Every structure is written in structure tokens, then in C-alpha cells.
């Protein structure tokens, strides 16, 4: 069987990639050897969160008196907690199966292996082998628990995370090897329900070693208060499982001191390793490194047509990372504009108490990357600002102190050579806007535009009753009506791309006064032009006051507002079409349409989009009207409103995503469109008039007005009777009789 895309693995990377591909009109198959949803939904993210929720509730009950609530006799039922967790996982599995069916994705159960020629051989549970082909194949086989050389997992006394969430009995004592997210979350869970927990971590930092050191330090304190013992900078030497209790022999890296911990079970939580063996990678020549597949920024391997996402890559082993990679990969395959993932901007979370979350560099990682910073720098700058009451001046004083520390005292005053805060603001803000428009806004708008264009092509010849003044009018075609919005967007996007991003760089009042006073023979205008153009990729405004005149920003905001107005118009039209049943909406079993009326399937995506676009336009309009106006050379009102420049973009992006979701839910109700046309035969009156005028028939409009005006019961028979009684040639009558509301649609 042939497909456009085959996805090997149905975890949060694989199933999300498959759904996005189906939305982009690809014929998709997904291959899964175990359970839909992969490790995350069945044995990872989701069921562990169910366990952790039980732990959290139990912890609340234990401290209920802190909130003035008296609770007596509460205890944790381990079997019931595990059962609930497995039930949640089963429900998620069924949910993924529903999504596959809803999106017409073929699910193939079995073990897949890549073969040459775009083929995948799948062996099912009975040993039968079937072959499938596709020009594009995504490897999303995920990962499994990493097994350390000196820690043999036997599934009974030494276990990995899958067994840890389905133990038959609750252990009294547990040793967890590894203090990453897996180890910390299980440590918190088991400790909360009464298990004595010791966490052993080889890294010196201890708990959550990938987080900032301050976070590890604080979490260790909290865990100690809960009774969780943490051994940082400690390695496991041997594990003796021969006796009634397990003996874990550990050794401290710092001084070599050894000790033995007795427990009932050992959880190996040393991370994950990729599932890349025996799936045909070597035979195809796909490049790997220590088991991980090597890909480019679009998730392409070195073999054309083979892609990889998720835990088989050396990127963060997180569900949302896999999903983001899946979407990026599929959209690139489909020819959409995509922006490569900045992995330093990926948030990470550890669900314990307190919960841990972070994004970006840790302090140490920033230093390793060459940044000379301290986490206290921001606090120090704010303390300076409280004295100066000026944010930019506070940064200046901070930088001067840094120059002194670096032995650059002779150059410290050049930190503020001819500088005004607006030379920073009026270069940084247009640069920020340029990046936001080009890297985020336009790609998303173009995705929506393509989606709309594809639908207009699919429905290009579907006849539809038009409405002018809210009343039936000469018929049109559904595809053409959608194409109207495509063309309007194209025109505005083309205009948007012509608007320059202008920056001001000219000193206090725009004349480079201080620069020429100090160095009168230097060409400061050329310097400023080169810096703005070559250094920032912007255009310099040559004649300004202390601030940039913002006329180009106003043009940008007006243009964005016009695009939003087009989208609002689209929202309202689609809302109307849904309300008159030209479209049905795909239903999702778990969703409700109304809190009181369960039969409803509300067009909420279009309502949500319209509301967000309206808020965005209100702010865009204010920015466009306010910014070009200054009092003489400068006041601070522009600085105040510019702090909100990201808000309308956020509302617009939310709206665009709602519209994409809304389009994906549409189901054409062709029967209703046909029924409306059949009920409105009078709408071909314009065509009858045109033919009669061609034949020099006297007063055709008046004749049709007398026949149709105010009447609601005109149908095929009555209209044909009217035509038959007209004193015209039979050939012309046949031409008129051939007209119907279904074919009177122009070209």
C-alpha cells in the first residue's frame, strides 16, 4: 500500500506529526508496535502525572489543618492509586485511536523496519510481514530506560520507570539512582505516600542537575524536610540482590568514602536511550552518533526521504520537543515556511513539590557560552535603577563597573559616548518587530493562507447561493468566495513586505551634536548608516528629533490592522455559513458545545479569533495614531505605549491558530447548499434579463419584476411557465430553460 507519509512510532512526536500531515491533505500511515501514544501517554508523562496528582492530594490532606480544615484517618491506597493511573493511560490511548480515525490516518500495528526504495516492512504479532511505501518516512521510535553497566535491571528488585508505576506492592524503602526529572518525580511520589526514599546522583550538583545550581540547592532543602535523603556526587558501585533486602553499595567521588544503603527496591532513573537498533538505519546508511540519529535543522537525515524526531535525536527528551519537531518536519515536507527550533528556548519542567520549571541558559551554561553574567546582575541593575529612576542609565552604570573590573577603566566613559536611550530603543524595537513579523507572524499567516487556498481549490466548482443585503442573490461558487479572502490577504501581505523598518541613531536631538563636538573630522553619518544597515539590517532615518518619527511603524501597524480586518470579515462569514448549515463541524467526543444545550457544536474558533483580532486592532490603531506624534523633540508617551507592542501580536497569533483549528474542523454540507439553490429559483432572473436584452426583448426587467417581486413561492415549474409564455424564439426559450440556480454561477 502506498502513502504520502509513513510515521514509525506513535508517541507525542509521531502522532502529532501524523495529524499535522493529515491536516495538510497527505495520505498518512502510522506504525506502532505496542500501544498508541507511545511511552509518554502509556508509561511516561501522563500516567506519572496521575500518580503525582494522587500524591499531591494526599499531601494536601496531611496539611489540611494549615488551612483550617480538620481531616482524620486519611491513608494512601497504593493499589487504588496505581489503578487510577493505569486507567488514565488507557483513556489517553483510546483518545489517540479516536484522533487517528478522525483524521483518516491508517494505523498499522507491528514492528517496522526501513528498507530501500521508500519501503517499510511491518511484522505483526503473528509474524506476518507486509510492505508499505512512501516518499517520506519519519522515524519517531522514541527511547527506553538507559541501563547502566553496573546496574542490571531485573524488573523485580532493580526496576526502571515502567515498573515503578505499576508495582504490585508499595515498597517500604527505595533507592533511586539518578536525580533527573524521572528520579525526582518518583522520589516525590513514593515519599509522599510513605516510602523511605534515598536518591543517589553521580553529578556533584545533586537534584535536577540540568537546572540552575540554585534550584538544585533549594529543592534539596525542601526534599530533606520531607524526609528524602539526597547523595550528590555519589556513584553506585554494586548492588547485592541476593538477600532478603537489597544492599546498594555507594562511593562518594570527593573523598572516596563508601557506604551501604539497604532497601526493598532500586529504581534506575539514569535517563533514556534511543530506540534505533534493528529498524534498518544501518542498511540504509543513515548516520548515527552513539545511537542518536543525526539530522539537520529540518529533521532530515543524510538519506533523502528519511526524517527523525523525538527521543531518537540528541535534543531534549521532552514530549513537547518531539511534538514541535514533528510539526516542523511535516510542514517542511509540505513546502511551508518553517523556522528551525531554538532549543535553548524550550521550557523544561519537573513535577514534584515544589514544581520546577525553566527556560534558556542556566547561569553556568551562560558562562560556558561566553557570557560574563551573574544571576544577581539583574537584581543589581534594578537596585541602581531605583536610585537613578532611569532604566537605561542603570545599565550604563552597571557596564561601567564591569569595564573597571576588566581593566578597561580608560574606556568606561565611551559606554555613553553621544548616547541617548532612544538610540537604543529606536534600534532595538524595529529590530524586534522585524524579527517578529518575518520569523513568526508571516509564516503563520502564510500557513493559514495556504490552507484557505487549498480549500478554495478543492471547492472551486461547488455552486452556492450568494447573499446581498442578507437576501438571496445571483449564485456564486464556494471556492471563489474563499479565493476572495486569499486575494485580499495576498495584496496586503505584499504591501506589508514593502514597509521599511526604520531606526533612529543620531544622538540626543538627532544631530550627532556630541559626536561632531568631540571628533569633528570623523564621518559620523557614514558610521551611523553602516551600523544600522550592516549591523542591524535596518534602514536609518536621517532627519529625526530625539526619537524616530515612527511613521513606518505606524504604516506597519495600519497594515497589520487591515489584515486583521480581513480576517474578522472572514470569521463573520464563516460564522454565518456554519449557522445556516453550509458547513458542519467535526465533533470531538470530549468537547461540549454549550453548558446548557448539549446538542450544540458552537463555531467557537471563529468567535475566539474575532475577539482576539478586535483587541489586537484596538491596540494597533492606538499605536499607529499615537507614536508619530511627539511634543517638540520628545516626551515619554511613546516609551510608555511601546511597552505594549507585543500584546497585539500575541492576540493576532492566538487568532490565527484558532482559525487554523476552525478550518480543520469544517465539513462541507453540500446537500444544504444544493437545497438552498433549489429553493431560490428567482435568483436566475438576472441571467434571464441578460439573454432577453441580447434578443432586444422590450423591458425584460419590468416583466420579471411583475412576475417575481414580493413572491416567495417561485420554483422551477412556475419560472418555466413564465418562460414558455414569452413571445420569443424556441431556441432562445431552450437557452433560458437550461438556466438553473446550480449552473448560473459565472466563471
UniProtKB/TrEMBL annotation:
Cofactor list:
FAD
Residue ranges occupied by any Adenylosuccinate lyase PurB C-terminal domain in the UniProt entry: 630-745
Pathway field: Purine metabolism; IMP biosynthesis via de novo pathway; 5-amino-1-(5-phospho-D-ribosyl)imidazole-4-carboxamide from 5-amino-1-(5-phospho-D-ribosyl)imidazole-4-carboxylate: step 2/2; Purine metabolism; AMP biosynthesis via de novo pathway; AMP from IMP: step 2/2
Does the keyword Cytoplasm belong to this entry? Answer: no
Q: Which InterPro entries match?
A: FAD/NAD-bd_sf, FAD/NAD-binding_dom, Fumarase/histidase_N, Fumarate_lyase_CS, Fumarate_lyase_N, L-Aspartase-like, Lipoamide_DH, Pur_lyase
Q: What's the EC number here?
A: 1.8.1.4
Report the residue ranges that make up the Fumarate lyase N-terminal domain in this protein. 364-612
Q: Which residue ranges does the record assign to the FAD/NAD(P)-binding domain?
A: 3-326
- Which reaction(s) are listed as its catalytic activity? N(6)-[(R)-dihydrolipoyl]-L-lysyl-[protein] + NAD(+) = N(6)-[(R)-lipoyl]-L-lysyl-[protein] + NADH + H(+)
How and how many cofactors are bound, per the record note?
Answer: Binds 1 FAD per subunit.
Q: Does the keyword Ion transport apply?
A: no
Question: A GO biological process this protein is involved in?
Answer: IMP biosynthetic process
GO terms of molecular function: dihydrolipoyl dehydrogenase (NADH) activity; flavin adenine dinucleotide binding; N6-(1,2-dicarboxyethyl)AMP AMP-lyase (fumarate-forming) activity
Protein family per UniProt:
Belongs to the class-I pyridine nucleotide-disulfide oxidoreductase family.
Q: What else is known?
A: The active site is a redox-active disulfide bond.
Q: What is this protein called?
A: Dihydrolipoyl dehydrogenase
Q: Which organism is it from?
A: Darwinula stevensoni
Question: Lineage in the entry?
Answer: Eukaryota, Metazoa, Ecdysozoa, Arthropoda, Crustacea
Amino acid at each position: 500500500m502506498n502513502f504520502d507519509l509513513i510515521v514509525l512510532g506513535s508517541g507525542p512526536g509521531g502522532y502529532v506529526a501524523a495529524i499535522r500531515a493529515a491536516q495538510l491533505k497527505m495520505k498518512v500511515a502510522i506504525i506502532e508496535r505496542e500501544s498508541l501514544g507511545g511511552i509518554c501517554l502509556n508509561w511516561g508523562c501522563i500516567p506519572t502525572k496521575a500518580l503525582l496528582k494522587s500524591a499531591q492530594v494526599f499531601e494536601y490532606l496531611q496539611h489540611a489543618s494549615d488551612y483550617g480544615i480538620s481531616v482524620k484517618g486519611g491513608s494512601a491506597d497504593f493499589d487504588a492509586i496505581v489503578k487510577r493511573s493505569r486507567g488514565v493511560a488507557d483513556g489517553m490511548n483510546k483518545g489517540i485511536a479516536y484522533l487517528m480515525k478522525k483524521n483518516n490516518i491508517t494505523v498499522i500495528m507491528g514492528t517496522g523496519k526501513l528498507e530501500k526504495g521508500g519501503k517499510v516492512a511491518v511484522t505483526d504479532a503473528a509474524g506476518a510481514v507486509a510492505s508499505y511505501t512512501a516518499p517520506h518516512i519519519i522515524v519517531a521510535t522514541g527511547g527506553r530506560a538507559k541501563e547502566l553497566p553496573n546496574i542490571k535491571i531485573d524488573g523485580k528488585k532493580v526496576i526502571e520507570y515502567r515498573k515503578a508505576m505499576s508495582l504490585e506492592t508499595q515498597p517500604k524503602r527505595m533507592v533511586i539512582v539518578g536525580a533527573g526529572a524521572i528520579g525526582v518525580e518518583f522520589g516525590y511520589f513514593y515519599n509522599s505516600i510513605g516510602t523511605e526514599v534515598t536518591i543517589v546522583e553521580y553529578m556533584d550538583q545533586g537534584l535536577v542537575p540540568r537546572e540552575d545550581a540554585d534550584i538544585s540547592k533549594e529543592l534539596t532543602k525542601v526534599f530533606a524536610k520531607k524526609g528524602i535523603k539526597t547523595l550528590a556526587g555519589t556513584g553506585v558501585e554494586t548492588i547485592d540482590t541476593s538477600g532478603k533486602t537489597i544492599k546498594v553499595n555507594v562511593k562518594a567521588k570527593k573523598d572516596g568514602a563508601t557506604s551501604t544503603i539497604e532497601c526493598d527496591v532500586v529504581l534506575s532513573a539514569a535517563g533514556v536511550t534511543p530506540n534505533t537498533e534493528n529498524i534498518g538505519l544501518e542498511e540504509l546508511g543513515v548516520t548515527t552518533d552513539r545511537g542518536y540519529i543525526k539530522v539537520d535543522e529540518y529533521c532530515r537525515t543524510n538519506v533523502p526521504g528519511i526524517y527523525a524526531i523525538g527521543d531518537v535525536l540528541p535534543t531534549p527528551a521532552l514530549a513537547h520537543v518531539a511534538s514541535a519537531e514533528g510539526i516542523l518536519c511535516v510542514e517542511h515536507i509540505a513546502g511551508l515556511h518553517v523556522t528551525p527550533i531554538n532549543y535553548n528556548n524550550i521550557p523544561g519542567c519537573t513535577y514534584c513539590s515544589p514544581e520546577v520549571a525553566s527556560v534558556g541558559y542556566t547561569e553556568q551554561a551562560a558562562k560556558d557560552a561566553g557570557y560574563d553574567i551573574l544571576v544577581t546582575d539583574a537584581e543589581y541593575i534594578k537596585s541602581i535603577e531605583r536610585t537613578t529612576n532611569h532604566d537605561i542609565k542603570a545599565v550604563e552604570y552597571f557596564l561601567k563597573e564591569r569595564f573597571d573590573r576588566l581593566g578597561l577603566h580608560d574606556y568606561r566613559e565611551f559606554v555613553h559616548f553621544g548616547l541617548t536611550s532612544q538610540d537604543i530603543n529606536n534600534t532595538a524595537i524595529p529590530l524586534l518587530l522585524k524579527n517578529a513579523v518575518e520569523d513568526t507572524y508571516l509564516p503563520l499567516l502564510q500557513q493559514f493562507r495556504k490552507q484557505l487556498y487549498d480549500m478554495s481549490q478543492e471547492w472551486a466548482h461547488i455552486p452556492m447561493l450568494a447573499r446581498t443585503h442578507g437576501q438571496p442573490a445571483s449564485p456564486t461558487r464556494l471556492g471563489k468566495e474563499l479565493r476572495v479572502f486569499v486575494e485580499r490577504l495576498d495584496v496586503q501581505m505584499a504591501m506589508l513586505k514593502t514597509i521599511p523598518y526604520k531606526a533612529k541613531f543620531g544622538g540626543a536631538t538627532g544631530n550627532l551634536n556630541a559626536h561632531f563636538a568631540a571628533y569633528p573630522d570623523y564621518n559620523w553619518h557614514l558610521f551611523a548608516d553602516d551600523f544600522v544597515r550592516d549591523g542591524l539590517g535596518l534602514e536609518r532615518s536621517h532627519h529625526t528629533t530625539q526619537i524616530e518619527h515612527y511613521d513606518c511603524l505606524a504604516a506597519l501597524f495600519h497594515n497589520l490592522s487591515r489584515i486583521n480586518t480581513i480576517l474578522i470579515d472572514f470569521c463573520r462569514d464563516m460564522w454565518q455559513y456554519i449557522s445556516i448549515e453550509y458547513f458542519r463541524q467535526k465533533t470531538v467526543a470530549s468537547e461540549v458545545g454549550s453548558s446548557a444545550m448539549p446538542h450544540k457544536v458552537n463555531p467557537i474558533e471563529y468567535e475566539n479569533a474575532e475577539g482576539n483580532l478586535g483587541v489586537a486592532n484596538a491596540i494597533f490603531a492606538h499605536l499607529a495614531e499615537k507614536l508619530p506624534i511627539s511634543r517638540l523633540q520628545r516626551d515619554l508617551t511613546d516609551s510608555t505605549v511601546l511597552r505594549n507592542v507585543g500584546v497585539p501580536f500575541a492576540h493576532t497569533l492566538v487568532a490565527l491558530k484558532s482559525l487554523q483549528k476552525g478550518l480543520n474542523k469544517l465539513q462541507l454540507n453540500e446537500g444544504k447548499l444544493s437545497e438552498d439553490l433549489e429553493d431560490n429559483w428567482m435568483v436566475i432572473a438576472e441571467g434571464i434579463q441578460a439573454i432577453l436584452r441580447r434578443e432586444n426583448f422590450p423591458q425584460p426587467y419590468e416583466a420579471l419584476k411583475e412576475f417575481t417581486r414580493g413572491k416567495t413561492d417561485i420554483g422551477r415549474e412556475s419560472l418555466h411557465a413564465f418562460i414558455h409564455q414569452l413571445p420569443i424564439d424556441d431556441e432562445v426559450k431552450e437557452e433560458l430553460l437550461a438556466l438553473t440556480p446550480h449552473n448560473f454561477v459565472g466563471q
